[in-house]
Amino acid sequence: MSEQALAAHVVAPFASLSDLRAEHAKLMRAARKKDAEGDIVARVRGFVDRAQATGCVLDAQNDRDSAQGVLDYWTAWLFSSPDAAALSATPAILAAFDPTNSRQLAPADDPYLGLRAFAESDAGKFLGREDAIATMLEKLRQHSVVFVVGPLGCGKTSLVLAGVVPRLKSRLLIETEKEPICAGVIPGTDPIGALVKAIQQIATVSLPGNWVEENRKRLERSPASLAQMVRSAAPGSSVIVVVDQFEELFTLCADATIREKFTEAIVSLVPDLESSNRAILIIRDDYAAAAQHLDALKSFATESACFSPPAPTGAELVRIIKSAADNVGLKFDEGIVEDLANEVSGDVASLPTLQFTLSKLWDRRRGNRITSEAYAEVGRPREALRRAAEEVYGALDGEEQSLVESVFLELIQPGLGEEVQRRRLRRDSLRQLNPDNPEQAIRIVDRFVDAGLIRKTPGIDPDDDRFEVAHEALVHDWPRLNAWLRAKRQDSEKKLQLITTAKLWQKSGNPGYLLQGDAIKEAAAFRDAAPQLRDLIAASERAAQQRWRWNTYGGLALTFIFGVLAAYAVMLYFTKTQVTRDLTNVSKNFDSSDVSIQKLSVDLEKANETIARQQQQIMDLQKRLQPRTNVSPPPTEPPPTNDGQTGYVWIGPEAQSNLAEPVSGAPVPPSSVKANERYKIIKTVVLRKEKPDENTYQQGPSLGVVPEGTALTATGPAIPFIRPSGTTQYWLPVKVGLSDKPNVYVQFSGISEEKAHQIGEDLQKRGYQILRVQASPDAKGMNEVEYYYSQDKAAAEKVASDVTQLLHQRGYKLSPTRIVDSTGKPGHPGALELWLDLPTSR
Question: Which CATH superfamily is domain 129-307 in?
Answer without folding.
Answer: P-loop containing nucleotide triphosphate hydrolases (3.40.50.300)
